[in-house]
Structures are given as C-alpha cells and as structure tokens.
Design a protein that fits this description.
285 residues, alpha+beta, seven-stranded mixed beta sheet, three-stranded antiparallel beta sheet, 7 helices, 26% strand, elongated
C-alpha cells in the first residue's frame, strides 16, 4: 500500500498509479471550478473508465495528449493513455523531489510521438511519447528474436489474443511477422549450409607459414653463441629498413625469458643509430 492510498481522494495522485505506470481509458474531459490555495480556479478534469478517481489535467499532460490524438478534445474520448510517476518533468518545479503524474505514451499510437511545449518564462520541454500497446511491444520483440525464441513467441501471441489484449487483426499481423522471420532465417541457414562443402583431408591445402616482420631479428638472435653479439640498425623511415627500439626490446626480452640457459640483452649505440644484442650464459642464481 502506498501512502496516498491511506488518504483516499477524489483525484489521482502519483502514489495511486499501480506499479508506477498504468493505462487508462479516457471517459470524459471537462472544466470545473476547484478550491485551491489561491482561491477558486478553473481546472480541467479528466475522467477514466477504469477508476472513479479523476485527474486534474495539468497543461504539461494535456499537450502530450493533444500531440497523440489531435486538438479535438471530443476525439480523445475512448482513447487510452499510459500514465506514470516521475520527478523529472517539472515545468514549474516548486517541489522538485515530489513525484507527479505524467503521460508516458499510449497503446493507441503506432510509433513514437515527439511533443514539444514551452511553458511561460521556462525552457522548452521535449517529451518522447511511446507506443505502449501489447502489439507494439510484441512487434519490437519479434524483430530482435533469435530462431530458438520464435516458437515461444508464437504461443505468447496466441495467449494475448485469448486474453483479448490483441485484436484479431493484430494477432494475424504478428503471426505473419513471426512466419516471415522464420522463413528468412531458414533461407539464410540453407544458403549457409549449401556453402559448406565436404572434402577429403587429402584435398586440404598444406598450411603456409606466415613470415613475421621480426623473423630476421629472431633468427639472428638464435644464431648467437655465448659471448657473441650482433648489431641491429634502428628503423629508418627513408629506407624503410631496420627495427624500432621498442620492437627490439620486446623481442629480446621475450627470447631471453623463454630460453632456459641463455640471456640476451640490449646495448644501444647512438653513433650508429642502432644497438648491440649480447648473448651470455644464465647464472644459476
């Protein structure tokens, strides 16, 4: 139970919205005088089919409903709106941390609706209203489905039809979407399988070894005996020959670590723009 449920009111409060988000069908919209802290004021009151509690329709919510269903208020009757609680959309933030009721979207819209409204002396508010019907949610889920999920999704769509959460037309469209996706996946798998060719092991080409750019350096180091050294030129951009100091250090360090009895070290020679790689025997210590 929410705190707002302890003190029932004629009007919906944020705490009365089940799970913080719920759909309501518009039954009526009218203006009537209400007593406020500033005296008697004309307010817009919205009535719903699902509850006896009414909503004082703030303009920030009214413009969202207009963006979804048009300016003819009479055309709003019978439409569904998804209300939710938030502290983020406050055109006149006198109580910033107090949850309020805002319009999230509607099951009766097919795609996202962008609502823009600039309150007096405030920054423009941009709200993206979402389609919240089972049909739209299911259609998005099917698009992202993997082959192993299609069977369960078809059963879920059938269950939604039985629960009257989908119309017959919506059910038919979703089943067609699932079927089309299954056919597409099947064709893709067929093409993939047809591209796979079974051959004899004797027909497999021998593996070709790829010669690394550092292979000459490694071979020169492996050719060293204890108390011998070799000179390695550093990389020259003009000729494109030689090795970068960091490459030499990395190769020498790795080979010295991997050798059980030989140690390799680097000694730079700035006068020749290169370095010497020295080979010695590793001590037991």
């Amino acid at each position: 139970m929410n705190f707002d449920d302890l003190y029932p009111s004629r009007f919906l409060k944020a705490g009365n919205i089940p799970n913080g988000k719920s759909n309501y069908t518009i039954k009526a919209v009218a203006r009537e005088p209400l007593e406020t802290d500033q005296g008697t004021e004309e307010k817009v009151i919205m009535t719903f089919e699902e509850t006896a509690m009414q909503l004082v329709l703030a303009k920030v919510n009214a413009v969202c409903i207009r963006a979804m269903f048009g300016s003819d208020v009479q055309a709003w009757i019978g439409k569904r709106v998804t209300l939710y609680t938030t502290t983020a959309i406050m055109p006149f933030p006198r109580r910033r941390d107090e949850p309020c009721i805002r319009v999230f979207g509607s099951p009766d819209i097919k795609e996202e609706v962008v609502c823009e409204w600039t309150p007096p002396k405030r920054r423009k508010l941009v709200q993206k209203l979402q389609p919240t019907g089972y049909f739209q949610v299911a259609a998005r889920a099917i698009k992202q489905a993997t082959p192993d999920q299609l069977s369960a999704m078809r059963k879920r769509v059938d269950d939604l039809l039985k629960a009257e959460e989908l119309t017959a037309e919506e059910h038919k469209a979703l089943i067609a979407q699932i079927t089309a996706l299954g056919v597409k996946i099947s064709k893709s798998n067929s093409r993939l399988m047809s591209a796979i060719e079974k051959v004899s092991i004797s027909d497999v080409p021998a593996r070709t070894s790829r010669r690394s750019k550092t292979s000459p350096l490694r071979e020169a180091i492996l050719g060293l005996n204890p108390e011998e050294a070799c000179f390695v030129p550093y990389y020259d951009e003009e000729s494109g020959e030689g090795f970068k100091p960091s490459t030499v250090a990395q190769v020498v360090g790795r080979m010295s670590k991997d050798s059980s009895d030989l140690r390799y070290s680097v000694r730079s020679d700035a006068s020749r723009n290169g370095c010497y790689i020295l080979c010695s025997v590793k001590s037991d210590g």
